[in-house]
Specification:
mainly alpha, single chain, 16 helices
Length: about 325
Amino acid sequence: MASHRWPVIVAPQFDELLSSWLHRLAFANGVAPRAFARVLGLAPGMWSASLDLRLPGNTASQLCTNTGVSLDHLSGMTLSHALPKRILLPLRSSGRRDRSTWLQFCSRCLAEDPHPYFRRRWRLASRVACSRHGCRLRDRCPFCRSRIAVFDQGKLVPQHYCVRCWYDLRRASIVAISPGAKWFDGCIDDIFRSEALSSSPPGRALVRRLQSIPRLAGSFPESVLTNLSTAARTRCVERLTRHLSDWLMNEEDVDDGVRQSLIPAADSHSSLVELLVAALAPKRGRPSTAMNGRRPTLDPAKLFKAHIETLDMRSLSSTGIGQ
């Protein structure tokens, strides 16, 4: 019997984007990504990035048949659920340095991967830092400043090489990020790991507030978060959280669990979400605090108090106390 399976099957990695898996699948079977669009019966352009947003039934069936990967697993690699859609980076081809591109990456993650791949959470505009390595994410090739465009690769080259200049993205230098911005980034990421919370009224309100961060920071008052490059978004978050950085500069005074887990992935931190929503609300009748240099928009004492309370609640829950 002749098998319908393609010669080489590639296993999806943890939190891998569907487009990233498709690019690796194409390369493993000796087909350039641009040509692989025709194999799937799709038009050229940002074909794989579009599948991240919506996977048509006929394409899903073809992939299931040819790879043996289940429909549920394929669906889990898309952005159709779990992640808040309003803060996804848009699919755009932009040459301006301060404008967003569709995907970010951490060069250290790519360098440490046995098979370099792009993560789903790198599509979120709210993400500016790598939670594993603590460095700022990148959204462009550091050599030629082009966006990540693996879907347009016409040659048989691994996806971690720039399509325009062949630069190995694993070699990109590390960009530092302030402790306050890193803390805030991890806080927001942990909140959106809970699908129920991200789709709740407080979660939706938080998404709206995050979109207005450029205006609150006073750096790009006419723009929204999803329209800015990673570097521009980082500047906004660092400016907004500069007083948080004062609290976090002496890392020996901050418990490892606080720095790494930040907030528990449980419903007990809903009070912290409400606090963040209130902190990011525009202040009527006076200029942004980030612009006039007065009190910080984000109050470190209140945020840390709410955070420590949620950590204490998780500790009590794990020991059975209070149940």
